[in-house]
Design goal:
By secondary structure, this protein is mainly alpha-helical. 61% of the residues lie in helices and 6% in strands. The protein has two domains: 27-101 and 122-384, Amino acid/polyamine transporter I; 503-637, 3-Layer(aba) Sandwich (Rossmann fold). The strands form two sheets. It has a five-stranded parallel beta sheet, with helices on both faces. The chain has a two-stranded parallel ribbon with strand order 1-2. Helix 2 (28-41) runs parallel beside helix 12, helix 4 (65-89) packs across helix 17 (382-410) and helix 6 packs across helix 18. It is elongated. The chain starts with a helix and ends in a 30-residue tail after the last strand. Residues 209-219 and 648-667 have low confidence and may be disordered.
Length: 667
Amino acid sequence: METTDVFRRLIIGEKLPTSQAMHQRLTKLKALAVFSSDALSSTAYATEAIMLVLAAASTGALGLSMPIAIAIAVLLVIVSFSYYQTIHAYPNGGGAYIVAKDNLGIAPGLIAAGALLIDYILTVAVSVSAGVAALSSAFPALNPYRVHIALFIVVFITLMNLRGVRESGTFFAIPTYAFIVGIMAMILIGVARVLTGSVPPGGPVALEPIEDAARLAAQNLTLFLILRAFAGGCTALTGVEAISNGIPAFQKPESDNAGKTLIVMVVILCIMFIGITFLANHLPIVISHEEGRPTVLSQVAANVFGDGSLPYYYLQFATLFILSLAANTAYADFPRLASLIARDRYLPRQLTNLGDRLVFSNGILLLAATSSILIILFNAREHNLLPLYAVGVFLSFTLSQSGMVVHWLKEREKPSFTRTTSWMFRVFMNGFGALCTFVVLLILLVTKFLEGAWIVAIAIPIVVALFIGIHRHYKEVAESLTLDGIEPFPLTPTTYQSKNLLPVVVLLNSLNRASLQALEYAIRLSDNVRAAAIEIEPDAVENLKKRWRQWNLGIPLDIVESEYREIGRPLRSYLHEIDEENPHTEVPTVVVMPEFVVERWWERFLHNQSARAIRAALYDDQIEHGHGRPVVMVPYRIGDALYEPIELLDDDPEPSPPTAPEKPPHP
């Protein structure tokens, strides 16, 4: 085994066979940790986001944080009801993207997809940055190293997720439940002390320095200021949609388990959010934008447990871990959603590939890279990222709930439809939820626009344009490869029979004009031609076998099993077997592959990834066995005139197979 492979196995573990996919699914206990860590962790900064806005008016305005928190909790229940319906209506996952695409059309579906992908990237950046803020609150000396610590955490979470869903779920369950226990203990003890009057006198104090006249004018408590505070607190809803996106990761019955997990998450989230806000309104804490000042949660914990006490540090570290590892929710959902979008040909096909540990490794790496860039650009300051955060969330909420309204209305077309109270209640709740989240979306855009929401407002159309550009290219490719207009015929090498028994294998994964051209080229080289497909995607192989039977090309098709979804080792073993079956030839089996040639540079990244893997595998094989294997690339230019095959037939309808020459005597 090569050194790089040994290191890879050490870091992410041994490869998992495809047959183990079902055993990698999550129990409700682990799923709550994986899919709810983002939503639950938002309680660490949602209350502070409300109070920081209200502090611009006066200390007296901080009291409004409680009714604002209750209003947000009501909105949370409404949105969660909608996603509970989505879980059972769309058990294959996909959340807002699938719901919007199926019920509102392609464009709303792509908008929801773009908003969700951006939201997941921001989830990682915000969660990790907030975790570092909790750490620097307890240890101020670490403040200059925020970015370095944040990037280290991103790398760590990335490696854990590359090890597989089940293994990462086991690991991330520990900090999630440690945080829940710590917050619940703080709320119980804190509320008891408030009710018994055994807390330090005084309430929250706003320390907002007046810098100029504009700042002075902002001190007046206005409806706009209240709406800004409400918009800031709505970050508590981020991550609610995660469970509906990841239904296939649950153990059977998937929808029931996902629905129950969602209910538990919402109950815990409401208790924690309202409890922290209640304590923040009854304890002497300081609200300020000043750099290096302890977070609201840190101050509440210090008042309840005692500053510097063991429970205080327990909660600080639990907060650090849950905030940092809350990014795991995005790691669970971003790759899965990206694979669904890629399957619909709106993202590169490479994002559909399962890695060594049965996870979408390419999606995980893409998420890590993009979120790291944001952490560096915004200096790991979560409050700089929060204005960007909630816009995409509420856009996807609105589209998802609007889509569910259309979904229920479509049921009226069924012959067995009956207008029941339950049906009308669902329509009303989804419609009311869509209206509420749309209003919140407008509030976010208006109140947070100049603070950074404009970036997301621009980024979403750019991402949608990227989707459309990729899909347009794949559509052009499909039109160039289609077999429409060609009648199936046996591709038997008789007219250009070369009497050459050199073994030739044509590698393909589908039957189209490019692979047909490669097959025609191969039979001009030899009379001993076979086709082979490596079974990485079972559905694609089944389609190939069906199409192969329909066309009856007269060329044998071999399906090379790949237990671990890899190309190199199964291909080399298969070619060695063909070599052994043809000992009379001195030249190893020739490999013929179709290769796409595209016009624009960026289109190259959308194709020929398998061809590169095959060339690398054959190169390694050459080094290992000391002989070269001929590889012939047959280019197929996308966008040119459609390739028309030449039917290689003669008068003999059933040509006799070539006979192998006598083996030369052994020297």
